[in-house]
Amino acid sequence: KEGGRDGFRFFGVEMDESIARRRELDADLRIALETGEGLYVAYQPKLSSRGNRIVGLEALVRWTHPRHGPLAPDAFIPVAEESGLIDQLGEWVLREACRVARKWPGLSVAVNVSPVQFRGTDMALRIHKIVYEAGVSPRQIELEVTEGILVEDDEEVRGAIQHLRAAGFRIALDDFGTGYSSLSYLKKFTVDRIKIDKSFVKRLGQEPEAIAIVQAVIALGHAMALSVTAEGVETSEQERLLQTAGCNELQGFLFAPALLEAELAEWLERPFQ
Ligand code: C2E
Ligand code: CA
Ligand code: CA
Ligand code: CA
Predict the structure, then answer these.
(1) If residue 39 lies in a helix (H) or strand (E), which one and from where to where?
(2) Distance between CA atoms of residues 126 and 211, nearest Å
(3) What is the ipTM, given to two decimal places?
(4) What is the distance in A from the centroid of ligand 4 to the CA of 149?
């Protein structure tokens, strides 16, 4: 009978399955990166809080697996980080993002950089080279990093961030407030922007103290001369509260989800509402 299995054995079976699945995903992702099949990048608009003008895009990778169908990045990014494929995947996303940046010179394009990519010593140089070869100004490219970079070697990471900022790239701290060391990385690295995590935005309008937290984060950012973006804006009430608190940029399903390039072109041409 099914229920007769003991917990330990069951755990063992699960582990084997997950290892096999990771191996499979890794092998398939390797092929996808070689052929370009099934991989693409979607772009989510970022709006200025005042006037709701589009100011930029965030590049978000998508993968339609040949047998399993569309997979969320959370399902394959960790696999790529573990196997080291993330370097190649990250560079591919950056090249795609540069192509789109050339198409819309008035928009900044943000690209997510995994903490694992910071392990390569020449990471800043490689990013710089890709953007240079694409004929895009680093000023148009923003790199989003999470506090996971803090577990990497301090001096290396600091050097890489300094190199990138000196070259003109903007650096944004993603998922701000979710980890243990959001404040300590503000002290360690000079950055340009913080992105308030969507978990805080979600609580706006649900819990009264959420407004106080968001106001404090925005005030902190402004006191450090940083621009502040809120992600995950889904309601007009959240929009209004964030505008009142002085948040600089808004991003979320209220305005647009991540769009395919063709959808983006259409979205940009829509009449002003
Ligand atoms: P993230 O960088 O925090 O990206 C924001 C996520 O929130 C995206 O999910 C986006 O589609 C989603 N989102 C946007 N607006 C809303 C909203 O109003 N409500 C809600 N509930 N969600 C919203 P996605 O595309 O599934 O990406 C998940 C994570 O995967 C990203 O989180 C990022 O950490 C990672 N990721 C995505 N693309 C890349 C990439 O090219 N490289 C790396 N290293 N990581 C990536
Ligand atoms: Ca991000
Ligand atoms: Ca985020
Ligand atoms: Ca995230």
Answers:
(1) strand 39-48
(2) 40
(3) 0.97
(4) 13
Looking at the DSSP bridge assignments, the partners of residue 42 are: 60
Rounded Cα–Cα distance for residues 194 and 227 (Å): 7
Measured at the alpha carbon of residue 205, what is the angle toward residues 198 and 210, in degrees to the nearest 5? 60
CA 78 vs CA 45, 109, 115, 170: distances in Å:
25, 23, 11, 25
Q: In angstroms, what is the C-alpha Rg of the chain? A: 20
Burial 95-130, CB ≥16 within 10 A → b, else e:
ebbbebbeebeebbbbbbbbbbbbbeeebbeebbeb
In this predicted model, what pLDDT tens digit does every residue of 54-107 receive, in sequence order? Answer: 999 999 999 999 999 999 999 999 999 999 999 999 999 999 999 999 999 999
- Separation of CA 116 and ligand 3 centre (Å): 17
- Ligand 1 pocket: which of 112, 116, 175 to mutate (most atoms <8 Å of CB)? 112
In three-state form (DSSP H/G/I as H, E/B as E, the rest C), the secondary structure along 139-177 is: HHEEEEECHHHHHCCHHHHHHHHHHHHHHCCEEEEEEEC
pLDDT digits (tens, 9 = 90+) for 132-189: 999 999 999 999 999 888 777 788 888 999 999 999 999 999 999 887 777 887 888 8
For the full predicted model, state whether its pTM sits above 0.90.
yes
Are 122 and 87 a contacting pair, CB within 8 Å?
Answer: no
Q: Report the distance separating Cα 116 and Cα 12, nearest Å.
A: 28
Residue 248: DSSP 8-state: S
